[in-house]
Amino acid sequence: MSWQAIGIFDSGVGGLTVLREIFRALPQEDTIYFGDTARVPYGTKSPETVTRYAHEITTFLAKRDIKLLVVACNTASAVALNALKREFPIPVVGVIEPGARRAVEVTRSGRVGVIGTAGTIKSSAYSRAIKRLNPAAEVITRACPLFVPLAEEGWTDNQVARLTAQTYLQELREARVDTLVLGCTHYPLLKTVIAETMGPDVVLVDSAEETARTVAEILSKKKMMRPPSEQGNHHYYVSDIPAGFIRVGNRFLGGRLGDVYQVNLDEESAGD
Predict the structure, then answer these.
(1) Nearest alpha carbon to residue 140 among 120, 166, 121
(2) Residue 126's closest CA among 150, 103, 160?
(3) Could you give the 3-state DSSP secondary structure of residue 212?
(4) Integer angstrom CA distances of residue 103 from 84, 85, 97, 233, 248
(5) Looking at per-residue confidence, does 199 or 119 come out higher?
(6) Which domains are delineated in the chain?
(7) How crowded is residue 135: how many other Cβ atoms within 10 Å of its Cβ?
(8) Going along the chain, which residue ranges are E strands?
(9) How much is the pLDDT for 272?
(10) Is pLDDT at 54 greater than 80 in this prediction?
(11) What angle do CA 113, 82, 28 make, to 5 degrees?
């Protein structure tokens, strides 16, 4: 079982930040990444629709014999994770629980900030996960929708990014949070500007990093890890033409994106 790949999916390119951390933590592992670029964004869709999409993609990845699934999408993690865990016989890891766990570990005051897309913040998934672990925690949330286009445009370290961060993060600074969860997979690209804006006393929790750590722990515990001497192979699939994904994906992965193949999930399921 150790030779099988890790499956990862997201509504688009954001999950590549999670993939990047998996590369760092587990360079020996094979990965299969699916970006649902034809149906992005998920945040505006109903929970039923997102759950259906997540099921279709997981079925596609399961056919490619994965040993573990990473739901590298905050919206899908918030609404579809439990259904996927019930329906598929492999470990399923979302991006919310690992980030919430880390925030509870590092906060000193119990005042935790969470930033994410409007859909993620509205779902209250991070607040619930943090309060499950520490009922006394005070969670202050803020939707930061413009961070996504800034990350995709590569505007991560300029005046526009700084002014946007200052505007969004002002109330979190005033609330004196000591920990800030980056609750969207795009946000690690803006980490420098976010850290600058929040100041040196605020610990940033990168859900992508924490998710990769959780994956490593599970594989190690289940003795499903490939030998460290191996070098992983990486495959990429998308549901729309690959050009845009390749352009932005190379930015996210530092130019390490391999061949990207377009697949039609309807045809895939019709072929069953």
Answers:
(1) 121
(2) 103
(3) helix
(4) 25, 24, 10, 32, 29
(5) 199
(6) 5-94+210-270 (3.40.50.1860), 97-207 (3.40.50.1860)
(7) 7
(8) 5-10, 31-35, 66-71, 92-94, 111-116, 138-143, 179-182, 203-206, 234-238, 260-262
(9) 56
(10) yes
(11) 80
Nearest residue to 217 (alpha-carbon basis) of 131, 105, 129, 91: 91
| Ramachandran assignment for 176, one of left (phi > 0), alpha (psi -120 to 50 degrees), beta (any other) | left
**Cβ neighbours of residue 98 under 8 Å, at least 6 residues apart?**
207, 210, 211, 213, 214
Higher pLDDT, 269 or 120: 120
Distance of alpha carbon 225 from alpha carbon 212, whole angstroms: 13
Q: Give the closest residue to 50 by CA, choosing from 119, 124, 144, 145.
A: 119
**Contact between residue 26 and residue 219 where contact means Cβ atoms under 8 Å apart:** yes
- Give the burial class of 199: count Cβ atoms within 10 A of its Cβ; 0-12 exposed, 13-18 middle, 19 or more buried: exposed
Q: What is the mean pLDDT of the chain?
A: 94
For the residues of 16-29, what is the DSSP string, one character each? HHHHHHHHHH-TT-
Distance CA 157, CA 4 (A): 38
So what's the pLDDT on residue 271? 57
Each residue of 176-198: pLDDT tens digit?
999 999 999 999 999 999 999 99
In this predicted model, what pLDDT tens digit does every residue of 211-238 receive, in sequence order? 999 999 999 999 999 999 999 999 999 9
Catalytic: which of 73, 104, 208, 260?
A: 73
144 in catalytic set = no
Q: Which entry of 16, 32, 184, 248 is annotated as an active-site residue? A: 184
- Give the pLDDT band (50/70/90) at residue 268: confident
Could you tell me the pLDDT band of residue 270, with boundaries at 50, 70 and 90? low
Q: What does the buried/exposed string (b/e) look like for 122-131 if buried means 16 or more CB atoms within 10 Å of the residue's CB? A: ebebbbebbb
Is 0.85 topped by the overall pTM?
A: yes
